[in-house]
Design goal:
Blueprint (H helix, E strand, L loop, with lengths): L17 E9 L1 H13 L1 H8 L6 H10 L2 E2 L10 E5 L2 E6 L4 E8 L39
Antiparallel strand pairs: 1-2, 1-5, 3-4, 4-5
Length: about 140
């Protein structure tokens, strides 16, 4: 049975994993998933709940609503946990709750790494600058 010991980091990405909420169920909805977990194992529950993951839409919703965690949520002593392919399942048959989060690797803000001086210069035009040169003097604006 899979267990969760430490936050998993992707070896190709040097940034620590963060976790975004995919789905939280409680009551009778959670009981159905818990029955599936108890019958078929936690991997079956994770695979079922992963169907709620809508990719970038899930990421955007989690970021917008503040469902982003540095570590996977841990419900405590009455909860059981399992992991599979970057997903972290937390469920409690006693409290009728099921939560699925997944790893999310976000590159750091360049300003935080002080990379702003290494970014290419902006090619924005100065709106108030006079034209550099004009072959026809009648095209200049006279005030």
């Amino acid at each position: 049975m899979p267990t969760f010991d430490d936050p998993v980091t992707d070896s190709t990405n040097t940034h620590a994993a963060r976790y975004i909420s995919v789905v939280f169920l409680q009551g009778s909805e959670a009981d159905q998933v818990i029955d599936m977990i108890l019958t078929n194992g936690p991997d079956a529950g994770i695979q079922h709940l992963a169907g709620y993951d809508m990719g970038e839409e899930t990421v955007n919703d989690a970021l917008e609503n503040g469902y982003v965690y540095d570590t996977p949520p841990d419900g405590g002593m009455l909860h059981r946990t399992a992991t599979l392919d970057g997903y972290h399942l937390d469920y409690s048959p006693f409290l009728s709750t099921v939560s699925l989060v997944r790893e999310y690797h976000q590159p750091p803000d360049p300003a935080l790494l002080d990379l702003t001086d290494r970014l290419p210069p902006s090619n924005k035009a100065d709106w108030f600058a006079a034209p550099v040169s004009s072959s026809c003097p009648s095209q200049r604006l006279a005030l």
